[in-house]
Design a protein that fits this description.
By secondary structure, the protein is an all-alpha fold. About 65% of the residues lie in helices and about 0% in strands. The protein has one domain: Hypothetical protein af1432 (Orthogonal Bundle). It is globular and about 45 Å long.
Length: about 280
């Protein structure tokens, strides 16, 4: 089978979890727009972040292709507009064509994975220096946009890709290619290209296409790769869709940091992760 990438470009928004949408609406409804930081409320939801970035990068606001972080988008749009965007966010379960167990994704765990990747990427950006930590954070949050789209619209086929990955012992991106004719990184590229996202975010998916896995397009991309690698080393779920594991030594060289730097930062970096984990546990 070969699904159409062109059709995927017509998607207007990616769906979110119902509890996430409800939490945001409760928080924003109980305070005036001057009393809350909208970024803090939506910062761990990849679908909402994508929707906000899409609007901020639309030609209407005059910054098409220039808004690369949630913080930038919030400053441009304001809380009232962002709340309206969230009100239009589809609910994930309504997009599943049959029972939820037809998809191999545990959506709650997947949202946690996106959140901790974002937090860890932002923390690494701050500690490494000379990087925009908010861009690193946002890149980490939305790095799996294509997986969300395939989960919502083609759950059975994605389940087949997971099965192929396990049975043939190949990475999930290669298994997706076998099943769909393209992979989730291609889907992300199509969506973000159609939504006028800046090159700094599109670079996230170009790096997946490189034959040389020790090369990266930019430092923010490398930060996200390092965050995912650390999460995998620390035993957190959700990294099964990584491409071939990168060489950590070359990754650190590219970022101009050392293993000693990582060792010195580890306690602080783990706190970023635990803060997000604690927040999700509190919501459940």
């Amino acid at each position: 089978m070969n699904k159409s990438l062109e059709w995927l470009r017509t998607i207007k928004n990616l769906p979110s979890l119902p509890e996430q949408i409800n939490s945001v609406l409760v928080a924003t409804g109980s305070t005036s727009s001057m009393d809350y930081n909208i970024v803090e409320i939506i910062q761990y939801d990849p679908s909402m972040a994508l929707s906000v970035l899409k609007v901020a990068n639309s030609p209407v606001y005059g910054y098409s292709g220039k808004i690369s972080s949630l913080q930038q988008a919030a400053g441009l749009l304001g809380p009232g507009t962002i709340k309206n965007i969230i009100l239009r966010t589809p609910i994930l379960e309504r997009h599943l064509t049959s029972h939820e167990n037809d998809t191999p994704i545990d959506f709650s765990d997947f949202w946690v994975h996106c959140g901790v990747t974002a937090s860890l990427s932002g923390g690494l950006g701050r500690l490494i220096g000379a990087l925009e930590s908010d861009v690193c954070f946002t890149a980490g949050l939305i790095h799996d946009a294509g997986i969300i789209a395939l989960s919502a619209y083609y759950p059975k086929e994605l389940a087949k890709a997971f099965e192929t990955s396990r049975n043939e012992k190949i990475c999930l991106l290669d298994a997706e290619k076998k099943v769909f004719g393209f992979n989730s990184s291609d889907v992300s590229m199509e969506l973000m290209g159609a939504w006028n996202f800046p090159e700094s975010l599109l670079d996230l998916y170009r790096s997946d296409e490189k034959d040389n896995k020790s090369s990266w397009v930019s430092k923010p991309v490398a930060v996200v790769v390092l965050a995912k690698l650390l999460l995998q080393e620390w035993g957190y779920p959700g990294c099964s869709h990584m491409p071939e594991e990168p060489c950590k030594e070359k990754l650190l060289q590219f970022l101009e940091i050392t293993t000693d730097d990582l060792s010195n930062w580890e306690d602080e970096l783990r706190k970023y992760v635990m803060l997000v984990m604690g927040g999700y546990k509190g919501e459940r």
